[in-house]
Design brief:
single chain; about 160 residues; alpha/beta; two-stranded parallel ribbon; 4 helices
């Protein structure tokens, strides 16, 4: 019976991790849009920038749920962009990025692998900020739809 309890505990932990990924990556984006978009539409201008990941463009076997949530953000952003005329909408999808996020959540082995990859391949967070600044700095008549930024080491 101890193996059954351990398996059940692991399944519950995995389920919590999947739900957290959906809550943070997709529902968080939806809540942000819901808070900002009505104000921007009333004002007749604005710029929504959503952050996805280069994982929105591929599926990794150990990160299918994560990739799915990031792809959902990508699809949501494109739909919002098509619906909006006075509000610019941009998706920024960074590759591995050096940040504290590699220290949170997930299976310890997967987390360790993500940290190692980030240490080797990661963009500085300032590069992501620069990509956002580029999109925001464009004239009001220019809508930068998507930016995918990876370190040259990531390829």
């Amino acid at each position: 019976m101890p193996n059954t309890a351990r398996t059940r505990s692991r399944q519950q932990r995995c389920r919590r991790q999947r739900l957290r990924a959906a809550d943070v990556n997709l529902r968080g984006t939806l809540h942000g849009i819901a808070a900002a978009l009505p104000l921007m539409r009333t004002a007749g201008w604005g710029h929504i920038i959503n952050i996805a990941s280069s994982s929105a463009y591929r599926v990794d076997p150990t990160a299918a749920v994560y990739c799915a949530t990031k792809y959902a953000v990508r699809a949501l952003t494109e739909g919002l962009r098509q619906e909006s005329r006075n509000v610019r909408v941009t998706l920024v999808s960074p590759g591995y990025t050096q940040s504290e996020l590699t220290e949170h959540g997930g299976d310890p082995q997967v987390q360790a692998a993500a940290r190692a990859a980030t240490d080797e391949l990661g963009l500085p967070a300032s590069a992501v900020a620069d990509a956002i600044a580029y999109a925001v700095a464009q004239p009001d008549t220019v809508d930068v739809n998507e930016i995918v930024a990876r370190s040259t080491a990531q390829g």
